[in-house]
Specification:
The chain has 3 helices and 11 strands. By secondary structure, it is α/β, with parallel strands linked by helices. It is elongated.
Length: 167
């Protein structure tokens, strides 16, 4: 192959497609590994996946992934993603999607990450934490919303749904 190989420390975002060649792909649809495969990716989407010998990568930047594995992004469906500085930890461990509480800070962080202003897993925000009230008269959860009686639930859900529809 006459391709110029790019280093693995690529910028967080780049325009156009990129070919990850000679990788072992673990599709996780069943127990199997696809040896010496090429994955062509653009804008976060897989355009093509095939044995490396079958894909023409002419004109596409290439990353040599010999000895490397490619897996689908992992999801952390219960996290407290409070600090953008944690983003590299998620991404370094293959976590490309997180579900976190929906405080105003997380909602703003989600919008900034969606714009690509900093590398981050995709964020799915849920309601703020809902908690009972402790002996100190406050919720035990930081930034928690108090709910002490079942009859409060409908109004609380309505409040969160109204707030979400305005976002």
């Amino acid at each position: 192959m006459n391709a110029e190989f790019l280093p693995l420390d690529l910028p967080a975002r780049r325009a156009g497609p990129i070919a990850l060649v000679h990788a072992t792909v673990v599709p996780m649809d069943r127990e199997r590994r696809l040896l010496d495969h090429t994955v062509i990716v653009e804008n976060g989407l897989i355009l093509k996946l095939a044995p490396s010998s079958e894909l023409d990568t002419s004109g596409i930047p290439v990353v040599d992934c010999t000895g490397q594995y490619i897996i689908p992004g992992l999801a952390d469906m219960y996290t407290h993603y409070w600090d953008p500085a944690d983003s590299p930890l998620y991404l370094a461990h293959g976590i490309t999607l997180v579900r976190t509480v929906g405080t105003p800070f997380q909602l703003a962080m989600e919008r900034i990450a969606e714009r690509g202003d900093f590398p981050s897993p995709r964020m799915v925000t849920i309601s703020p934490p809902i908690d009972g009230v402790g002996a100190n008269g406050r919720t035990d959860m930081p930034r928690g919303v108090a709910m002490t009686r079942p009859e409060q639930a409908a109004a609380l859900v309505e409040r969160f749904a109204t707030r979400a529809s305005r976002s």
